[in-house]
C-alpha cells in the first residue's frame, strides 16, 4: 500500500467519536482431555482468563491502537465487569461518556480449548434497559461531536441506538460538519439516510436490501448496491465479503472489489470492527475511498491472524504491508 507512513501520520491527528453498544469480551483459555461423567460434555481445565473491550468498545480500541484519539459513548454498568472495562479504556487513553441506565455491563464469555472456540456465554439485560432518550443526545454527545472529526455509530442490536437517537446524533454531526458512519444490524431496522458510510457484511447487505440469500448463487452486487442507495442514499457503501475481500460502492454503482489482504486466518472475531475503524480513520484523514479501503483491508488482515478480539498497531501494519 503506497503512502502508508504518510497516512498514519495524518491519522495520528484524527479524533473519532464512537457511539454504540459497549461490552466486555471475556476469554477462558484451557484444554480438554476427558469427558464429564455427569453428561456427554468435555471437561475444560482452565489455564487463564483474559479480558478486552468488545462491541462498540472494540471499534474504539482499534481506533486508538492505530494512533488516533477516540472518545467512546455508550453504557457501562456500575459493576465488576464495568470496572474492568473502564480500566481497559483508560489504559488505551480512550475517553468515555457514559449513557444513562441501571443494567449490568454486557459480557460475552468465550471458552477456547486448544485455540478453538468451544462455546460462548452471554450476560446481558433486556435491550430496553440500555435505551437513551433522543432529547438527551445534545447534552450527552454535543461536546464530543464538536471536538471530533468523525462519528461512528456502532450497532450491536443491544438497544443504545434507536431511530430517534441516530437521527439526533446525525443532525448534530451534520450541523458541525462531521463525517458520519454506521455499522448496521438489519434486524434492528434502524431508520437512517444520507450518511457518509455504511459497512454491512454480505449477509447484512442482503437483508438491508430486502433480498433472500440464494445458496450457491453469486452475490448480486449490482442489485444490492442499487437497492441500498435507493433506500438509504449513503455516500459510500463498503460491503465486507469475508474471504472475497471488500466491495466498494458509490451512487448505487459498484466501483470495485478489493481482494482480502489476509494471509492466515486464525479468528475472525472483531475483524469487522477493525475494518470499520480503518475505513473511518482513512476517510477522516483525507484518503480516497479506495485508499481508505486498502488501509482497512490490511488492518483486518493483521487482526484475523490473531486469536480472540484483537487490534493492530501502526508498527504491525507497516511490517505486514512490507511483507506482502
Automatic annotation (TrEMBL):
Is Transferase there in the keyword field? yes
SUPFAM superfamilies named among the record's database cross-references: Ribokinase-like (SSF53613)
Query: What is the protein's name according to its record?
Result: D-glycero-beta-D-manno-heptose-7-phosphate kinase
User: This protein's superkingdom?
Assistant: Bacteria
Under Gene Ontology molecular function, one entry of this record is: heptose 7-phosphate kinase activity
Q: Which UniProt keywords apply?
A: Kinase, Transferase
Q: Which InterPro entries match?
A: Carboh/pur_kinase_PfkB_CS, PfkB_dom, RfaE_dom_I, Ribokinase-like
**Could you tell me which residue ranges the Carbohydrate kinase PfkB domain spans?**
16-314
Question: Which GO cellular component terms, listed alphabetically, does the Swiss-Prot or TrEMBL entry include?
Answer: cytosol
